[in-house]
């Protein structure tokens, strides 16, 4: 028998707010419970709020399920948790994650929209890295100036260096 899990609840319970247990989501997404708990803690800002009632277990909405699908798909593509968080900030809540088309399948228009949002998220991330790269490039340039000055000093004959201090720029 196959391990395919089909949820018929949305078809029979129209108009009723669906809630899913963590175990059901783990089976549906094929992730361990520990991973789901970790994602739930890390990305709590992107999940529906849980009413603090005594004796209740955590339940998730259909939007939470889609958020977990996004996280799973992005993690499977090798994205880090920080990058996933940046992407979740740019994507509207409850939207499906961008999926790559199968062989011979045409890409969908919604996939293009999500890809554009991912490009926007990556562009923001690159902008923060550009500032760090520029700061490091300035440090490299300063070190090169120091090295050039010291090289010129050391190429002088020994008798011309007597009484002179090596050039040190700070």
Offer a concise description of the structure.
By secondary structure, the protein is mainly alpha-helical.
CATH class of the largest domain: Mainly Alpha
Number of domains: 2
Report how far apart the termini are: 73 Å
Q: What structural class is derived from the secondary structure elements?
A: mainly alpha
The helix tally amounts to 7
CATH architecture of the largest domain: Orthogonal Bundle
Radius of gyration, in Å, reads 28 Å
Please indicate the percent range of residues in DSSP E strands (runs of 2 or more): under 5%
Order of helices and strands: HHHHHHH
Total E-strand runs: 0
Which descriptor suits the 3D outline? Answer: rod-shaped
What helical percentage do the residues reach?
Answer: 55-70%
Q: Give average pLDDT, whole number.
A: 76
CATH topology descriptor of the largest domain:
Multidrug-efflux Transporter Regulator, Chain: A, Domain 2
The largest sheet, given as strand count, sense and whether it forms a barrel, is:
none
Query: Looking at the chains present, what oligomeric state does this protein adopt?
Result: single chain
In terms of per-residue confidence, which ranges show pLDDT below 50 for 5 or more consecutive residues? 96-110
